[in-house]
Amino acid sequence: MSQPPAPPPKRSAVPALAGISAIVAVLALAFAWVGGWFGRGLTPQQMTDTIEAGKPHPGFRRAHTKGVCVTGAFAPSAQAPQLSKARVFTQPSTPILGRLSIAGGDPHGADSKARVRSVALLLKTDDGQEWRTAMNSFPFFVVATPEGFQAQNLASAPDPATGKPDPAKMAAFLAQYPEARKFLAWAKSAPWSNSWANTQFNGVNSFWFTNAQGERHAVRWSLRPQAPFEALSEAQRAQSDADFLSEEFDARLAKGPVKWDLVVTEAGDGDPIDDPSQPWPDDRTQVVAGTVTFTATSPQDTGGCRDINYDPTVLPDGMAPSKDPILAARSAVYSVSFNRREHEIGTGQAPEATGAANGEAK
Fold it and tell me: What does the pLDDT read at residue 55?
């Protein structure tokens, strides 16, 4: 009696992930080279190492580590096609796979201690084009260059002797990068919101839009919440649960969708296009290009956002990156972080990040 043929061996996902990672890495490094910052001594690997601070959490993002996946849709306004010929501005609705997060590298960090909150979006249109973007709650970036950002991360690292940043190193950083004082003033004085839902998220980098008539404009975009702003007091922050942002957001979704307006701001004459540390004047032309609606969340360890690299230079036809060196650096550093965590996931080194530690592996 003949034996039934043996089943084919299961294919490991590692080679596929490695191939995808290699392609993304090559594209990101090429973009960084074109952006003019890579090759001047500072590498995306060095920047990622500094962000990790010797304590990476396997399988997790190296920055903005704590977050949740969100799903929803984008609906363009009637004015959107006048801004750009991108398909996302002409088809009636585009699904969104996104992520809400807080700043920091701890997957268990307390929401009440994170000054910066963030959102990332992946929109894929019916012709296969993608628009990936990541925005933050601050209105401008801390510095103008990758070298400045690296210097900030080094200066703000806790001193082993005190557990706090060395004041002398911070003073030296501010002397070399004075534009950072404006950001620190914002961080100290701007009110905290009590929800992701009433937080405005800003894409501080500039991009170029081209419409069907061939008209080209430099723009920045923001998500303006439709929910009214509510401040979170110091006393409320002190009493908040470590996960209050995701708990509050889920409670809102139980009552209905949560929405933001996508607001596109056009640069005026002389506005700094390639410097994200410089805000544009408030009187610049703004156009509501559509509505972002979130309808559900899921844990990031098993959710669809876990294995997405929200590289802000992945853009559809009709949108193009500026020459902002921070934008190029973000793309390259995101790639390094993505490669590291996907390798850890693919080789079974990340049970917590994948849910395997709780028997919920994706």
Answer: 87
171 burial level (CB within 10 Å; 0-12, 13-18, 19+): exposed
Residue 140 backbone class (left: φ over 0; alpha: ψ -120 to 50; beta: rest): beta
Kindly state the tokens that stand for 131: 């628009």
For residue 332, what are the contacts with CB-CB under 8 A and spacing of at least 6?
Answer: 28, 29, 31, 32, 38, 44
3-class SS of residue 101: strand
d(CA 31, CA 312) in angstroms, rounded, equals 12
Pairwise CA distance, residues 163 & 152, whole Å: 17
* pLDDT of the residue at 357: 86
> With a cut of 70, which residues of the chain have pLDDT below it?
1-40, 361-362
> What's the length of the chain?
362
DSSP code at position 144? S
Q: Crossing angle for the helix pair 167-176 and 180-189, nearest 10 degrees?
A: 120
CB 204 within 8 Å of CB 220 = yes
Instruction: For residue 202, give both structure tokens.
Output: 């800003």
Catalytic residue among 57, 64, 108, 343: 64
- Is 64 a catalytic site residue? yes
Token pair belonging to 248: 């509050």
The radius of gyration of the chain's CA atoms, rounded to the nearest angstrom, is 21
Buried b (16+ CB within 10 A) or exposed e, 274-305: bbbbebbeeeeebbebbbbbbeebebbbebbb
